[in-house]
Amino acid sequence: MNLLQFYHLAKGEMEHLPEYADLSNVSVLINQADRWVHDTGNPAIGIRDVYLDFDWERLMLRIVPDEKLIRFSNTLRDERPIHCQRVAGMKVYWCPKCEQKVRISDSYCRHCGQKLGIPKDEKISTNEKQ
User: Using an 8 Å Cβ cutoff, are 112 and 103 in contact?
Assistant: First the structure.
């Protein structure tokens, strides 16, 4: 979206405001979900600042949110326990991220790189985890 498109969208929305609306009481938010899904809480974040900026090739409008839009709850470096399941009397181990088969002795998933930990209910000797 460019600034002209943004301007027309904002102008169009402002035309729908009631004449008596006090603009200082109208919040401007950044939605993080579908705007039509109101029953899930429709998470939104306030805007801290808006300014024009120049990036190497073009002028752009920057909108700075009050808080981070994306929060990472897990990275590949965070250890996550291997999933374990009994299949035909044998234990089968799965990566918690990509769900590919792994060995109990693997420190990292060879498919996605996730750091692996021993399942909570699993006891393993130091010789096995090498």
Answer: no
